[in-house]
Amino acid sequence: MEIHQQTETVNIFYVQAESFPEGIMKAFDQLYALMEDKEQHTLFGISKPDKNTIAYKAGALEKYPNEGKRYGCYTFVLEKGDYLSETITNWQAQVEKIGFTFSKILTDQRIDPAAYCIEWYRDNDVTCMVKIIAE
């Protein structure tokens, strides 16, 4: 695992998945349908345990202020700070590694228990990260 230093706050607009994990692809399909230039957006998965399930958001980085509002979406703020992270290369061939990676990260005592699990998709890689408690 590595420490990812997020040096700026960024806004991510999202579509809430109806279920986890079954509803993830449908949420991304809904997100794609909203965007005019979907190939130009950086994608994110945002999740957090909610009672006995996991609440999942399929998101995209805002390219300009209030882009999410234009599409009728809510916005999630990825805060500045340090994140415990691990990158999975060629993630589509090993999707199950995403859950295993978060399970490993979530056992680390440095993480903020109120933080979200963030999947940051870049080309064929995904970086799994959770914010660390500020010292």
Task: Provide a descriptive summary of the structure in words.
- The chain is built from 3 helices and 8 strands; from the N terminus they run ββαββαββαββ.
- With about 140 residues, it is an alpha+beta fold.
- The protein has helices at about 25-35, 65-70, 95-105, and strands spanning about 1-5, 10-15, 45-50, 55-60, 75-80, 80-90, 115-120, 125-130.
- About 20% of the residues lie in helices and about 40% in strands.
- It has an 8-stranded antiparallel beta sheet.
- The model has no long low-confidence stretch (mean pLDDT about 90).
- It is globular, with a radius of gyration of 14 Å.
- Strand 3 (about 45-50) and strand 4 form a beta hairpin.
- The chain has one domain: Multidrug-efflux Transporter 1 Regulator Bmrr, Chain A.
